[in-house]
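All the exercises in this workshop are built on plain-text protein records. A learned vocabulary of local backbone shapes supplies the integers on the structure line. Once this layout is familiar, the rest of the handout is easier to follow. An example says more than a description, so a record of this kind follows:
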Amino acid sequence: MTQHLPAIPNTDSRSPLCATINLSGSIITLNAAWHEQLGWPAEGLLETIFVTHVYPDDLEHVISAIHLAVSNEQPVRFRCRYSHYNNSYLPINWQAHFKLDNLCIELIGLLAR
């Protein structure tokens, strides 16, 4: 009998988590680091709402930060706990930057140490 154990987060990797979300908050692009560091297969996150995987206590802060990035058209930095595929949460330092020409928000995140 095979036992499936939860994936262990890859905290040694420093590749940034890169994603693009539309103005509705849906993830429309992401890079391989999401799978490498958070265990998520691309198809598990594409078209989902970015904040769906934010730790509940951090949700209001994240929504405010993204709103600020859009309204000020300036990069905004924030930190939150984001879910790993194994149902744990990892702290991530994010930068959100609104792209007026594409009407989307670029997100770049690094696992916090």
